[in-house]
Amino acid sequence: MATKVEPTPTLTGDDADRFIQKLNIPSTEEEIKALKRAKKTFEQIEFKR
After folding, report:
1. Record's superkingdom (predicted)?
2. Does any domain span residue 5?
């Protein structure tokens, strides 16, 4: 039997405003380096399929 799927949370109010403001700010060099390192690490993980 299938389980009930909960609705996806939606940001509203101040949280939504902060989220949009953060999206409009370009990533810093430090953030880009961290994301590249995370991507490289993630690609090294072998998932069982």
Report:
1. Archaea
2. no
Of the two residues 1 and 43, the one the predictor is more confident about is 43
Can you tell me the mean pLDDT for 17-26? 92
* Full residue range of the structural domain in which residue 32 is found: 14-47
Residue position matching structure tokens 């690609």: 43
Residue 27 lies in a domain: yes
Categorise residue 13: left if φ over 0, alpha if ψ from -120 to 50, beta otherwise. left
Whether the predicted model's global pTM rises above the 0.90 cut: no
What's the chain's length in residues? Answer: 49
- The answer to whether residue 1 is domain-embedded is no
- Number of structural domains (the chain) is 1
